[in-house]
Amino acid sequence: MTSTKAQPVGSLGHPHGHDHHQHRHGHNVAGGGRALLWSLLLILSYALIEAVAGWRADSMALLGDAGHMLTDGVALGLAALAARLGQRPPSPRHSFGLGRVEVLAAVFNVLLMLGIVSAIGVEAVRRLLYPEAVDGPVVIGVAAFGFLLNLAIALLLMKEAHSFNQRAALLHVLGDLLGSLAAIVAGVVIVSTGWDPIDPILSLFIGALILFSSLRLLRETIHVLLEGTPRGVQLEAVGKAMAAVPGVESVHDLHIWAIASDRLALSAHLQLRELALWPDILSREQELLAEHFGIAHVTLQPELDQHPLRRWAEAPTDLLRRPDA
């Protein structure tokens, strides 16, 4: 259990009276869903054209990029579905809503991307060992069109890439963009010099770049699933700010986690000077957390310090006290 301080022995078994306030969810999934759907239609159309051209030109770069774009269609379809599910309100079965669907979709898409990179890498190595002639002009023409299309889609998605789900979809499209660029360079080199190995070499280089970005996003999404403290949030800084509210003696059992990319939740125990101050303290804490830290879903438990000789499971300095305490 992640906490800034273990719970004091004196409060074990204390009945928990949780106080909540309204949630302010800043969703952009509606616009993001439309962008994903348009991107899906464009990518599937181009993937078919590129696959036929790659087969006729016998280009590893084009065939690999076509396969990549086909799986991107699946990824974008899943991302669009996750964006729509994320709009559903909380229910008795899913009290937090379905915001975590976008995280699961992102994990699936990243794993799919890793599979694509592996397949392209294996085929590129095979082409290096057993070179095949590539039709350079066809590669240049198709890849140039694909580059412009992927650039337009990337710009469309960048405006809405706020969630893990949309970032994973954008990662697929950026991979396509780099793949098209690699195919253009390969075609130019082949036409100019006749050196066919440039085609699989560039495929390996682009695959390495995509692999790095995929692993980074995978690490972030797994961190969310493990209820880690959200990136950019300092647990100690939040606790100290909460402890500085007048009437609060200390803060402990503090937890902060992400329900979804744009929805943070917090729970904590607050030791008070007087229980009668709790309504005003609760209002101040809610305002502080929402305005300064962007945390709208808050569960706080008030406690009175009635044990002058307290024992702690950890060092007393781990307790977040008021700065003047």
Structural commentary:
Residues 15-27 have a biased composition (Basic residues). It is a multi-pass membrane protein. InterPro entries: Cation_efflux (IPR002524), Cation_efflux_CTD (IPR027470), Cation_efflux_CTD_sf (IPR036837), Cation_efflux_TM (IPR058533), Cation_efflux_TMD_sf (IPR027469), CDF/SLC30A (IPR050681). Its main location: membrane. By secondary structure, the chain is α+β, with helices and mostly antiparallel strands. The protein folds into two domains: 9-24 and 229-321, 2-Layer Sandwich (Alpha-Beta Plaits), CATH 3.30.70; 29-225, Alpha-lytic protease prodomain-like (Up-down Bundle), CATH 1.20.1510.10. It has helices at residues 29-57, 60-85, 101-129, 136-158, 164-193, 198-225, 235-243, 278-293, and strands at 248-260, 263-272, 297-304, 320-321. α3 (101-129) runs parallel beside α5 and α3 runs antiparallel to α6 (198-225). It is elongated, with a radius of gyration of 26 Å.
